[in-house]
Amino acid sequence: MDAYSKGNFIAEYRGVYCTKEDDASESDYTFQYFFSIEGMIKCIDANTVDCLAKYANDDRNGGYSSMKVLVFNGQPHLCLFASTDISIGEEIQYDYGVDSLPRRTSTLQKCENINL
Known about the structure:
Elements: E1 2-4, E2 9-13, E3 16-19, E4 32-37, E5 40-45, E6 57-58, E7 65-72, E8 75-82, E9 86-87, E10 93-94, H1 107-112
Parallel strand pairs: 6-10
Antiparallel strand pairs: 1-9, 2-8, 3-5, 4-5, 7-8
């Protein structure tokens, strides 16, 4: 039995809306999702809200789900959908789309930056 079938809604990435210029919570970018809509960079800061979608992990190969921006009544909503069948016990993952994340840097590059 699958927990989510392909195409099923999983969760909404909820939080405080802001623009990149607002600089969101300057001290902690841990649970901030930046996205582009209508030519503007916007952000949903989930640092201070209970939001299950913020715990989905990054997978540069796409993972088992994808984030889509849906607009309702002029307000953007970031919605996570299953891109394949997901079984109970499988980790919810999607491609964050940010190649500069530290965990995406190769081990060799990380070692070259260490000053001993």
